[in-house]
Specification:
Elements (H helix, E strand, L loop, with lengths): L1 H4 L1 H7 L5 H8 L4 H8 L9 H39 L4 H39 L11 H7 L14 H11 L26 H4 L1
Helix pairs in contact: 2-5
Amino acid sequence: MALLNRKYYECAMTGTNVTAYIKHLCGDKSSDQCQQELSSLPCLRPKEDRQRVLITLRADSQILGWLLIASIMLSNLLMICMARCTSPISYLQLKFWRTYAQEESNLMDSYSSKHAKELAKRNLKSFFDQEPPANISTPSNRAWKKISSLYKFSTKDHYYSTIHRYVEESCDNDMMKIASVKSSGTADNIPAALGFVDDVRMA
């Protein structure tokens, strides 16, 4: 933006000591006289010769600005192409992953709202009725921390999210008995807070 605005470039280049660039700006004018006027050129009242130099500076500034923008866009495009070409994930699998992530996010919002409403209702009922609260299952702090970490896809594990990884690893370690999309067996006593993982089981 500073290059496209031209003002900063004018101030910077009028104070330069590069002989070749000074000749480029001064043209047929005496280089000694022109060099003396260059440093104060942006502040002087524009005359015909000074205006010509300023136009040249502004044109150079905008050209450099657009070249910089184009080079950044091109480098980003090349990086994206290289990342896609060297990615261990195929296009269809990546498409499925994005669909899964979107669906999981939508369901997470839905189940979080539902569970929070049930927990709030239980607490308020216990408070106003002055009776012991009913039992309700909710994920532990450790579980929330695990599913909140940054996730990177691995071709070895084939998990599509931190929740997917947490559910599968918890099942493999017998930390909780839940039905799994990877296992062929069934599970009993599904915790209420984690029942949304297996829609088939809930159905």
